[in-house]
Amino acid sequence: MQSDSGFSSAHNSHGSLRTVPVVMDSSNTFSERFKTAPANQACAHAGSMAPVKLAMVSCGLGNVNRGFEVSTARWYSALKNDPRLDVRLFAGGNFPDSTWVANLPRDFLLRWPLFIASLFNKRRVWEFAYGSEMVTFAIGLLPHIFTYQPDVVWTKEAPFGYVLIFFRDLLRLKFKVVIANGGGFKPNTVKLFDYVQHLQPSSYEAALSFGIPKDKMQVLPHFARYVQPDKPRDEVRKEFGIEPDDFAVIAVSAWNCHHKRIDYIINEVARIDDPRVKLIMCGHPEPDTAYLKELGKRVLGDRIQWLTLPAEGVHRALYASDAYVIASIDEVFGAATIEAALAEKPIACHPNAGTNYILGDFVGNSDLTKDGELAARLTQIRVDPPTKERLKEIRDSVNSKFSEEVLCNRFADAVVGLKQKSL
User: Fold this and answer.
1) What is the C-alpha separation between 103 and 157, in angstroms, rounded?
2) How do residues 234-268 score in pLDDT, each as one tens digit?
3) Using CA atoms, how far apart are residues 72 and 332, in angstroms rounded to an integer?
4) C-alpha count within 13 angstroms, C-beta hemisphere, residue 342
C-alpha cells in the first residue's frame, strides 16, 4: 500500500497535493521543523549528551506493504532529524534512505523454493518463510551492528527480536531491544524485550497484570498522516473507475481471512444487490489472496478491484470512496482507520480494543461477527450518511489523540531515557 514516495514527498504524478487542516504533509513534519531549526535551538533540545544511536528495523520494508512496514518508515521519516537521535533505517528490500540487509525474503521463498509445499498448506509454509526471513535478516544485520554500534534497536517483529537478543547475549553486546507491539503479542511474548511500546491501553494493562514493570513500557501509539488530493473529487473517482452515482466501499489491509476477514467483507458487499455498490481492496497479498480474488470474482464480478498502492495512492483511494470498512474482530491498532477518520469518511467497524481506542465514543455498535450486519451498516451509511459536521467532529477527536509532534517527542524521550538507564 505504500512505497518510497509515500513518506517523503507531497507531490506525485497525479498533480500537487495539499494538506488538510488537521494533518501535516511531508513539507511540514516534525522532522522537517527540527531540520530547519536554528543550531542553538537544536543544541538546546539535544543537551550535552551525544545523540542516541537508534536502529529502526523492518525486515520486510521494500518487499512487503503492510502496516508494520509503513509505520516503521513513518517513524523514521519523522525522527531522523531529531538532534537527540542518530537514527538509521535498516530494511530487507530496496527502500530510499535505508540500509539494505541481506536476507531471504518471505515472498522470494514462497515464489520459488517453497511454492510446491505451499500448495498443500499455505498458512504453515508462509509461517516458515516468514520465520526464515526473520532469522536470516538478524544474521545479516550483525555486521551493521558491529560497525554502527547502536544504543537501541527498535522493531515490530517479535521473531526477529528473539534472534537478535540471542546473538546480543551470546556476543555480549550492550544495545537495548525495543518491541513495538503492533501485532497483538501476549505479555509472555514481549517479556524478554528491554522495553515495550504498546499501541493502545489494553495490551499495556495486560502486560502490567502479567508482571512486566511500568518502567519497561508505555502506551505510545503510531501517528498517521493524511494528505488530501488538490483535485476535484469527481476526477479522482474517475481514476478508480467510480461513476458519480456509485457507492464505493474501501478496505485498507492485508488480504487474508484469518485476521482481516476479507472474505466476510466480500460476501457482505455481495449481499447488497446493486451493481453501483463497488469494493476497493487496498493492501498486500498473503497466502489467502488467490482464494479471496476467486471469491470476489465469483460473487462481485467487476464490482471489486485489488490495488497495492503507495501511501499517497491510498489517500487518493480514500478520498474517492464513500465508506471505509475494517472487519477485524480483534485489532490492536489500525493506522488506516486513523487515516479514514482524518479523510472524514464514514467508518464501519467492529468494536474492539483498537477501534475503541482510535474512535472512542464514535466507534458504533455494529457486531460484525453476524452475517448481514456489515451489509446493513453500509446500506445505512449509503441511505443516511453522517453529516459533515459529525465527520469533522470525528476527525478532530482522532487528530487530537495522534498528533505527530507530541508522539514523536515522547518516542525520542523514551529512547533517550532507555540509553540513560544503561549508563
Assistant:
1) 15
2) 999 999 999 999 999 999 999 999 899 999 999 99
3) 16
4) 28
pLDDT, tens only, 333-350: 888 999 999 999 999 999
pLDDT, tens digit (0-9, with 9 covering 90-100), for 282-310: 998 888 899 999 999 999 999 999 999 98
CA trace torsion 280, 283, 288, 294 (10° rounding):
30
Taking residue 351's Cβ as centre, other Cβ atoms within 10 Å add up to 16
Q: Which of 320, 322, 356 is nearest to 337 (CA)?
A: 356
- Side-chain half-sphere of 212: how many Cα atoms within 13 Å? 22
Rg of the Cα atoms in the chain: 21
| Contacts by residues 330-333 (CB-CB < 8 Å, ≥ 24 positions apart) | 330/184, 330/259, 331/355, 332/181, 332/182, 332/183, 332/184, 332/199, 332/200, 332/203, 333/67, 333/182, 333/199, 333/200, 333/221, 333/222, 333/357, 333/358
How far is residue 4's CA from residue 171's CA, in Å, rounded to a whole number? 34
The full length of the chain comes to 423
For residue 322, pLDDT beyond 80: yes
Residues 370, 372, 377, 378, CA torsion sign: positive
Nearest-angstrom CA–CA distance, 253 and 167? 33
Q: Which cell is 38 given?
A: 536554528
Q: What are phi and psi of 42, to 5 degrees?
A: -65, -40
Strands of the sheet containing 277-282, edge to edge, are 304-307, 277-282, 247-252, 323-326, 347-349
Please say whether the beta carbons of 191 and 212 come within 8 A. Answer: yes
> Where do we find the cell 472474505?
263
**Which pLDDT does position 318 carry in this prediction?**
97
Give the model's confidence band at 48: pLDDT under 50 very low, under 70 low, under 90 confident, else very high. low
Check if the beta carbon of residue 176 is closer than 8 Å to that of residue 395: no
Cell for 174?
550492550
